[in-house]
Automatic annotation (TrEMBL):
Transmembrane stretches, start-end: 172-194
InterPro entries, A to Z: Emp24-like, GOLD_dom
Keywords: Developmental protein, Membrane, Signal, Transmembrane, Transmembrane helix
Residues in GOLD domain copies: 29-139
Protein name (database record): GOLD domain-containing protein
Family of the protein in this entry: Belongs to the EMP24/GP25L family.
Recorded superkingdom: Eukaryota
Length: 205
């Protein structure tokens, strides 16, 4: 029982839920970025304080500029999308006000969930006739699989970075050897040239 409690605590530390609250100045844009793996469902819930005459839009894009979700003149609601590949995804909120009007600072509350926390285990458990403990065990199993995938990807990235580092070191070594031979060749040419020059001027025999 104690071991299970420890495992539950460790799993709960690995959360894919993030909530943030920030201020958006009039006629400005603020973006939040996060790296996500491929095929990860993401949902977000936002709420924006009211300001007469002002409008706020949101847009979700990847690093290549592809739009995954977008909506104009928002106040409160949700959005969702699936990641297409491992990439950095950004959620931007854009404030718009008419030119003569003096704008007000708006407060934006955003809660995002991805991965395991998107799945509705209550509905899944009811459909599969699972007991509460079985639903919790299923959630922990999915969470542990997600952690394993993250660690596997981190290991792959570490191997790629190590290979890149070794390749760079080899290139630097070859370039250093090439530079040394070039300097030796240049020094030899200078000595021979000066020797011929001094002989021509009869300064040396």
């Amino acid at each position: 029982m104690e071991l299970r409690s420890v495992c539950t605590v460790l799993m709960s530390l690995y959360l894919s839920v993030s909530g943030i609250m920030f201020n958006l100045q009039p006629n400005t844009q603020k973006c939040l970025k996060e790296e996500l793996q491929q095929n990860v469902p993401v949902i977000g819930e936002y709420e924006i304080s009211e300001a007469p005459g002002q409008k706020v839009d949101y847009i979700v894009k990847d690093s290549k500029g592809h739009t995954l979700a977008q909506k104009e003149d928002i106040t409160k609601g949700k959005f969702s999308f699936n990641t297409e590949s491992y990439d950095t995804y950004e959620i931007c909120f854009v404030s718009r006000i008419p030119q003569p009007q003096r704008g007000l600072t708006q407060e934006i509350s955003l809660v995002t969930k991805h991965g395991v926390d998107v799945k509705n285990y209550d509905a899944f458990g009811d459909a599969a006739n699972l007991k509460p403990i079985e639903k919790e065990l299923q959630r922990l199993e999915d969470l542990s699989n997600e952690i394993v995938r993250d660690f596997a990807y981190m290991r792959k990235r570490e191997e790629e970075m190590r290979d890149t580092n070794e390749s760079t070191n080899n290139r630097v070594l070859y370039f250093s050897i090439f530079s040394m031979f070039c300097l030796l060749g240049l020094a030899t040419w200078q000595v021979l040239y000066l020797r011929r020059y001094f002989k021509a001027k009869k300064l040396i025999e």
